[in-house]
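Tutorial, part two.
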Amino acid sequence: MAQVPDLASRVSWFVMVPDTDAARSAVRLLERLGGVPQTITHASGRPWLVGRWEAGEAVTAELGPNRLAVLGEHRLSTEDLLRLAGGATDSEDLCASLRDQPGSFHVLASTPGGVAVHGSLSGYRRVYYHCAGGLALASDRADVLAALTGADLDDEALALRLLTPFSPWPLMWQPVWRGILAVRPDERLVLDRTAAPRTRQRWQPPEPSLDLETAAARLRQALAAAVTVRGGLHDVVASDLSGMDSTSLCALAAGQGRHVIGLTCVSPDPLDDDLPWAQLAAREIGKVTHEVIADDAYPLPYTDLHEPADRFDEPTAAVIYRAGFLAASRRAADHGALVRLTGFGGDELLTADPALQLTLLRTQPRLALRHLRTLRSAYRWGRGATLRAVLDRRSYGRWFGSLVHTLAAEGTGFNGPLLSWGPPVRLASWTTPDAHATVRRILRDHAAAATPLQDDRGLHGRLAGLYAGASAGRHLAQASRRVGVTTALPYFDDQVVEAGLSVRTADVASPRQYKPLIVRAMRDVLPESLRQRSTKADTSISALRGAERHRSALLDLAQRSRLAERGLIDGPALRAALEHPDDRTFYDLDQTLAAETWLRAHEETTPGNGEHSR
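Running the prediction step on this input gives:
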């Protein structure tokens, strides 16, 4: 079932193999699965990195018996690697030597003692590994490892993917293939010659200690460097031109002397004000060719769900919006742009999570209480419920265990104070009793050992949201490669993430201010008129119209459901819900469609050649 990405996808991927004779059989199998992949060798001459990547994505350096490589979006040269890693001796030191470099890439090292690899702090660049029979392999794609090792699909892991809005950490992070493990974003994978695979912590979030002015300067510098990396030698660069986050990237690119194609997709929502703001931005910024994709030319959500064009390595709700995203990338390609900048990640990094008020409560209680009163009024939280949430001192494990009781809760969503370790999770009404029982058991089994990303609820929530957003962005960017456009997501870069997390909580937690950090960071980049915007487009009307337009395709998915064949959902119940939707139906539908379309994309292919069968 699992396969390597087909050539038409243009997706880059790699497998890292140890410096042993035993690894050669894995390389030969990979060659049969993926055609004739590219290879980078250990100092011994044995294969080290095997896969497929575009020109300029992979750069390596030889440091005596050691090797260092980067793979992704960067502007590093072999000379840079030699200079930066000159004093490093072991594999971890080699990887750590590139910590402060801008861009988004994997770092990999090979030494006589073993190998090491890490991805990005946001989780946008991921690392997976598998160990069996003494042979350990690592890759940036779970499906490639599954194809290489013969790993089967794990139906229990797939059941967890039906949770709305997403599974709690760390369940959200684990692959759906048996025996394939995922490395945390803040860790590095080390494969020594004589020891089992191990992960080592490589990063701690910065203390939120910088004043707004200092943090804003750091964010502006990090974003400017990120845009420079993506621009490279290209004269024409595309950039989304909609909200504050993408408009900032567009302005930075134009300020660096490039001709920018500003992409604005018009929503059917009459209250969506993206277009007038984008028109103002195009005039004010200059050097921008404004490309407006009218609502009748912009595919609605749920378009082409039945087309298994992209085989992602995990179920993703991004498939629902894939057609519209690709329409914008095609417009970029029409103008000769090979790179498209997007503002994905800005919301997760720059928007104040309500739980940050609990962080602020410890240092500035009066300010935090004022903010909580504002939030309670805006979201109509009950006074008693808000007080109980503030006084809730449950550990992460106890909160994790309590999620069992919310799985079948009534209503469209959680309306209480959003001040806990995360949102309650739900299972749709069409989920089978057996799948319910499986998910409840897994939650109970993991509750005792569950630990948060950070002991602080606010920071834990920010990181969990960042990881979830990076997963969706990663999948859309992979889809965009198929049309010849590299989609860049600078807000998920390491230096940008660190800058966003370093600001004092009091300077960004006010519910009355809209993204104050990016507003201050863009003071010398965007005109004051653009920095005053405090609105954000709502996609709910587009989603509802898309569901209505593509109702027959959705009903067909329910009628011939692969999830139903696996006993995870009740197909007739899903069909009935689609025929007579209520307020909750489409809230619950995303994760079901993510898993359903993913199964179809992987099953409706001809094994061995990576091509689709129709």
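The radius of gyration is 24 Å. In part three we will examine how such features are distributed along the chain.
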